[in-house]
Amino acid sequence: MDPLSSARLDDPLTPAREATVEMLQQRRRHFSLPQPFYNDERLFRLEMQEIFEKEWLFAGMTCEIPAKGNFITLEVGDNPVVIVRGNDGDVHAFHNVCRHRGSRLCVTDKGKVAKLVCPYHQWTYELDGRLLFAGSDMGKEFDLSAHGLKPVHVRTGGGFIFVSLADEAPEIDGFLEALDHYLAPYDMANLKVAVESSIVEQANWKLVLENNRECYHCNGAHPELLNSLQEFDDTDDPRATPAYKALVARKQADWEAQGVPFTLTRLERRNRLTRTPLLDGAVSMTMDGKQACQKLMGNLQSADLGSLRILHLPNSWNHFMGDHAVVFRVMPLGPQQTVVTTKWLVHKDAMEEVDYVPEQMRKVWDATNDQDRRLAEENQRGINSKAYQPGPYSETYEFGVIDFIDWYSERMLENLGNTAPQLR
Ligand code: 3BY
Ligand code: FES
Ligand code: FE
């Protein structure tokens, strides 16, 4: 298909589309991307259209909106979105944009409402998006039913909420089924957010993801995390030692006996689920490797469950331990600015200061996030130099980065309407 056939002739991004397709077709695989992918405003707008407005994005957790009227909001670039629990108990998502004159409707990160009421002129919507009330003088002809909130695709699985702003959403059933399976023991409806953080990084979102997809930097950067984390990704990690493989075999026998899922599942390059052991003796990602919450999640019998790692490209990675979970959401703000939101989850009946101390629980990942922020920001500053040129990824240490960049390049090319095979 002609890459430009879907582009409008007057679209100012048309030349950028052509240039992007060409750069992606000519990129060297196993090398970082050319500079414009990390700092160009037009390329950023293009990938917001082609990735963030088309793919499924991790938005939040169902336990954040437990009751009808609970909502959370999300900004997908210029697109405000609201996700709300309806009267029917279902999760709905809408463009958070009033159908009167377009004001943002819900203006806080989260809340609870009886109806969705616009703060500007009080147009009032039902939780399922229907317009109920539009002032007194819109005229006899005014059709309430034609002015409901615009829906956004939303799906849930294993307590995770995903949204897609595409006209036609891509497939996600396989991943949702996998999430339901892996997270069944955690009783996801009965968790709560113990503490959360949002940090803004002065770096392109792909640098944030690239950094997360390798542990090549862990030894030099993450002393707190390495009190509990194994640097190996799984037994298929080329660096995995016999001692690590023996530990995995031992732990897997325990997990098998307890009925908790652990095998590695990959769904395309986009989604990956696996349970891997922490350092022998550590049961949680805490400063001392001990539980951060005395009450375990769901119906788990043991805290010693390693970490269930869940990757969802383009914007989430997660660690589920026995006592608590840490979920991460990445949202681009600009070509060189990204917000990373981290939430620590515990059993909803766990008592703050009794079962867990939030300041203790968050220590390791607060430190790790800050260290990763600095790495991504320095990476960005070097990439902005005229001296930058794409550099080689190590297949041994950076296979996860290679996978991410391959996935990104394929999605961009396909969504840009060009499926020509890439050059090697
Ligand atoms: O644990 C994580 O989420 C990633 C993977 C390896 C390094 N990094 C901190
Ligand atoms: Fe929402 Fe006017 S813009 S009521
Ligand atoms: Fe890191």
From TrEMBL:
Look up the record and name the cofactor or cofactors this protein needs: Fe cation
- Tell me which residues make up the Rieske domain: 56-163
Keywords assigned = 2Fe-2S, Dioxygenase, Iron, Iron-sulfur, Metal-binding, Oxidoreductase
Which InterPro entries is this protein grouped with? Rieske_2Fe-2S (IPR017941), Rieske_2Fe-2S_sf (IPR036922), Ring_hydroxy_dOase_asu_C_dom (IPR015879), Rng_hydr_dOase-A (IPR001663)
Q: Which Pfam families match?
A: Rieske, Ring_hydroxyl_A
Looking at the keywords, is Iron-sulfur present? yes
Which GO terms fall under molecular function for this chain's record?
Answer: 2 iron, 2 sulfur cluster binding; dioxygenase activity; iron ion binding
Asked if the record carries the keyword Iron, the reply is yes
What top-level branch of life does the organism fall under?
Bacteria
Q: Mind telling me what this protein is named?
A: Aromatic ring-hydroxylating dioxygenase subunit alpha
